[in-house]
Specification:
By secondary structure, this protein is α/β, with parallel strands linked by helices. The chain has a 10-stranded parallel sheet, with no helix packed on it. Strands 8-11-14-17-22-25-28-31-34 form a 9-stranded parallel sheet, with no helix packed on it. Strand 20 and strand 21 form a beta hairpin. The radius of gyration is 26 Å and the shape is flat. The chain starts with a strand and ends with a helix.
Amino acid sequence: MAKHFSLQHIAEQLGLEAINTTDAVYTGVDTLANATSGYISFLTNVKYKSQLNTTNAGAVIVHPDYKDQVNGPALLSDNPHATFARVAQLFYVPVPLASGIAASAVVPESVSLGQNVNIGHNVVLGENVVLGDGVTIGANTVIQNNVSIGSNSIIHPNVTLYREVQLGNNVVVHSQTVIGADGFGFANDKGTWIPVPQIGSVIVGDDTSIGASSSIDRGALDDTVIGKNCIIDNQVQIGHNCKIGDHSCICGFVGIAGSTTIGKYVVIAGGVGINGHITICDKVQVTGFSMVVQDITEPGVYSSGQPALTNREWRKVSVRGRQLPSLFDRVKQLEKQLEKQNN
C-alpha cells in the first residue's frame, strides 16, 4: 500500500526545517528532471543546480545555502543525500520474500527460531541453526550447521551460508552470494598442491549489506571478520582471515587477498586489487582499478589505475613506457659524464 506524508510530517520525523510548506501530501521521491507534483526531489550535485528552476517536483531537499533559489516547498539539510535516503525509506514498501514457513522448507528440530521468522520455499537449514526475531530467508537458500543470524536480517534467494557463519542484526545478503566457503589455502610440496583445512569461520557485524554474487571466505585458523555497517557491492571477493573495519565501503569487482586488514571508514572503489598480508589504516580511499601491494599507514586518497585515453594517446604512452629502461640507462650515463667533468 502506498504511503502519503506531508512535508511538515517528514520534517518532524527527521528533525529538519521545512520552508514554504502547503497542505500537499507526497507519495515518493524522484530526480529533479523526472519528479512530478506528488514527489519530493533533491539536489546533491551542483551540476544540476539549474534544474531547481525547471523541476516539477512538489518539494525539494536542498542545503541551506540554496534556500533562496527554491521557489516552492523544501526541506533544508546539511547533507541532502543522506536526507534523501531517509525520506526514501519512509516511502519504501518492501516486497516480502516469504511469509511464514514454507511447507517445502527443511527445518530440523534442533533449529532455534525467533518470533516472526519467514522461510521461503526449498530453503534447507542445517542442525543447530539460530534465527533471530524477524529474520527472512528467501527461496532456495542453504544454511549449514551451527549458523547464527541476528534479528531482522534478510537473506535473499539462492544464498549459501557455510557452517558456523555468524551474521549480526539487520544484515542483508543478496542472491548468489556465498559466505564461509573454504579460503584459498594450499601448501606446495614439490609441485603438488596440498589443501590446508580451513577451520575458522566468518563473522559479519550488525547493519552490514552484502551485494549479489560476492564471496567471503572462511578463515584458515582465525575468523574472517566484517565489521558493522559495512557496505559490500556485487561480485566482491574477500579472502580468508581478512578483517574489514566498521563503516567501510567496498565497491564492485574488488578482490582482497587473504589476511588483509582494512581499517574503519575505508572506501575501496570498483575493480581494485589488494595484495594479501597487508594493512590499510582508517579513512583511506582507493580509487578505481588501483593495485595495492603494500601497507597504507596514513589516511588519504590513493591511486594507481590509468585513466582512459584516446587510442592514439594510449599507443604513444605505451611506446614511451617501453622506452623507459633505455632512457634510464642514458640518463645514468649522462650523470656519470657530468660527474667526471665536474671533478
